[in-house]
O-fucosyltransferase family protein
Amino acid sequence: MKWVLTTKGGAGGGGGGELKAGVFKSKLKWVGLFGLVLSAFSLFTHFLLARYSDDFAVSEYQSSVTIFSWRPIFENADLPKSTTLRRRLWGPVTRLEHIHPYANPRGNYVAPDLQTNGYIFVRIRGGFHEIRNSICDVVVVARLLNATLVIPEIQSTTSSKGISTQFKSFAYLYNEDQFMESLAEDVKIVKTLPKNLKGARRKREIPSFKVPNSASPYFYLHHVLPVLNKHSVVELVVPDGGCLPALLPPHLEEYQRLRCRVSFHALKFRDEVQELATKILYRLRASGRPFIAYDPGMTRDALAYHGCAELFQDVHTELIQHKRAWMIKRGIVKGNLTVDSAEQRLNGLCPLMPEEIGIVLRAYGYSWDTIIYVSGGEVFGGQKKLIPLHAMFENVVDRTSLSMPWELNRVYGREANLVDKSPKTSPPFKEEKKPNALRTSNARPRPLPPPPPRAKYPYNIEGWWGWVAESDNEPESTVIELRTNAHKLLWEAIDYTVCVEADVFVPGFDRDGKGHPNFASLVMGHRLYKFAASKTLRLDRKEITSFLEEIHDHFYQANHTWVTSLRRHMRRNLLDGLKEDFAKSKRLSFLSFPVPECSCLRDNPSKVLPHASSPSGNSSQLHGIFGAMHQCPSWMDRSDVVSRLEEVKESEEDLDEDDSDSPAATPLFRQSSETPEGGGVEMSNKEDTQIEDQEELEGVER
């Protein structure tokens, strides 16, 4: 039986239509709500995976969602590995491949005595490179005095407020256990002073010495050691990035190798810092391409010390001059306030600007899609100074573009919230009571008093532009700035690891704000020790500046002759730069040039290179650069000799390949399909190419 709903007229049909429309609308609402929930759940899951996934590098690099601010852009999928061009740009320096690290003791070197003369407690001031130099020196001093070394205290961390209490002083940057274990056969090291000496230190009853950078071993043996024997403890304050001369007497050569063992083996960054540096390296190499590490070296202190203020022609010039005046007042700089910056630049005493570095790299042959990692915590002048470099190279990255904020926060540890206690608003206006006019009226009117001085509040002098005109002194560091100084140590530790492992390293400047070797010098020294043949472009700033002056009016259009001359100079400077650093940098910082004391020569180079005209040709040139070098012990592996022979033979065959001609003047900054192989200016002469490649493989007899 069927029941039929009867309605009057057409009312039944109209009601059914309204019912169907209502049901359809409700379904749309449920579908839309389900879609929103599903989208929110998908987004939440994606970020959870990005946050906690173990396969961080591959997933983040290949993800369609931009995890990092850097998305690499390449012209070609792969860069051929067997071409002459690749070896010229990225390959090792052949004549240095037989130098290997060897910092082990040689000769009669005994373990430290169980009974020492006392304790040495050290407080170290300065930046990253100064701290590293100082730690190496104090270990040598402890060995020299037969003393027990207390883990050094890094003032940049102990003076900071609000940093993590999980990592204190030395442990904020380095691994304490690794430091102690690596040097167990050299120096006796403890983490803290005994309880009785701790109390004496709190009462400031411990004798203290503020040692200069060039304090000789005689000073420690005849001034510090008697006090140490008397009081059983001595405090050393090291403010200038070292407490021993860079060059020690010949009979103390073992102490130079001890410096190498400290810097290159014992000083390992703590696990959190090392882990993030390894992640950044993995992300840089995820594309399978080599990369360049570039350290600008443009700090305000260095620019002020060397008189390079006029290179900026803006407000930064005034800031540099203010800093130079402050340095002159304190005796750091001995000279005039006003210096001809153009002349300083022509003499190679000022940093090369990022734009100039970009022009040199493009002219040498690096393509527009080369990966360049910019190191350094501060580029004075701001990011606008890096704009020309970004215009010439597509893949310019730094620490922040290759890491997430939470990863950096994990390195910092759990930090306290800093509250700025300075008043943010002006104080309330107090209305002064005016005296009765009848009581103060006289025969003649009194002159009005001068207006009261305008109150100065923190927001009036905030920033550089305020305190430059306020006082001749540098402003006191705020609590937040002190914390940032501690963070800079961690930033530079990450950059240091990346620069040492880079395929090519390019320093923009190698001096700090006191005229000493800086961060870049330490990197070059570590690379020279770890793998002497690694490509490090030690640019002769005076010569490079003269080259750039020749094309000053047409930076973006270089002719063939200029490019050829620049390439020849840079190839020859791979060895000539070592000679210059040996003469200038080593006498200021041993760690910037630890060869030949911490290296050895493995096998006779003339047996490996068939081009050597005489058995002593190659070794004599190395002797001219480094002096006498020890032969490596027989237990070292020699398996790389045969492989090197094969590489040299292959390179000879590649030299016969033809190079396409190019016009007399070729743009340096073409991109995409217009770019020749290598991205720079192509060689228009086959003989020039063969001669230049032969110079790198065999060296040039001069």
